[in-house]
Every structure is written in structure tokens, then in C-alpha cells.
Amino acid sequence: MLDALLANPWLIAALWSAMYIFDYASTLWLAHAYQTTISRYSIYEGGVELNPVFEKEIARRQSISPKFIAALILYDLVILLSGLINFFAVEVVAGATLLTWIFIDLRHLRNYFYVGFLRAKPESLQGQLRYSYWLLQRLISAEALGFALMYGFFALLTGRVFFLMGAITCAALALRQYRLANRKLPVPGGNS
Which residue of 54, 105, 132, 190 is surrounded by the most CB atoms within 10 Å? Predict the structure, then answer.
């Protein structure tokens, strides 16, 4: 089944595009849910978007982002061009993109359930937690590392580069988020 997917870069590009659009749309939804529901229970230092590339767009709840569209087109081109190189290149790119966004989109699914549960039974959570940017980034780092280990295990079991690339990209994401934890946040309303 994996070989059938890898034989069609157009399908990989379509799948990844859907996952990437779901990521951005879900983050916009979470920004709204944060204001209407989550902030009663949790305060997130720095807001809900933990990728500095899109912080401002999400804070403004910008539905259409030129950076997002540019990244969507660029990634799709890389996926499609990998098909012109060879099957191995497609497997490398597909593993790196699809498996990383599985991790990202599963976090969004968890958020949908979390907010839904809170809305259905608001009294199920008492008090309010204040999460530092440092802790939020370190938690994402730990989750990404868990996915890297799982994908690495699958790579060992199957011998597939697809899973190896998922392991590498999730490990790189874990390292990035770990380092971002020490980032100095922009001052609200300031120039950054």
C-alpha cells in the first residue's frame, strides 16, 4: 500500500496539502476557542501559535496568509519535483512531510476533543493553569520526540526510508521546539 502511495506524487501532494490546510485552519479555530472557552481554564504565555513563523497571522486570526500560501506552494513543488528524480526521492520527501504533519494534526484533533469536552461539561475542570512559553515548547518537543522514536522503531521493523524520514523530521522538530523554549517573546504591541 505504501508503494502505491509513493508511486503517485500528485496524491502525496494532495494529502499533504489537506493536512497543511487542516493545520492552519485548526490553529485559527483554536485561537477562537482559546478566547471563548480555554482561557477560563488555561492561560498560554505567548498565545496558541507556537511556530514563530505564523504567530502574528494567528494572533490577528488572519484567514489568508501569504506566508502560508507560499509555503503550501513550495512544499507541493518539492513533493512533485521529487517524482521527477526517482522513487527514493519521493519516499524521502513523503516520509518527511506526511509523517511530520500526522504528528501536528493529531495534536489539533486532541485540541478539538479537549474543547468539546470542556464545552459539554464545563465543571469537569476547576481552576486556571498558567502555562509558560518555555513549558509549552518543551511539551511539544517531548511529544515530537515520542513520534520520532515511534517512527524510528517502524523504520527498523520495515527497513523503509519513509519511516526513517518521519523519525528524522520529528526529531528535528523536537530539537527546534526545545530550543525555541528559551526564545525571548516579543513584547505585545512592540516592534518585533
Answer: 54
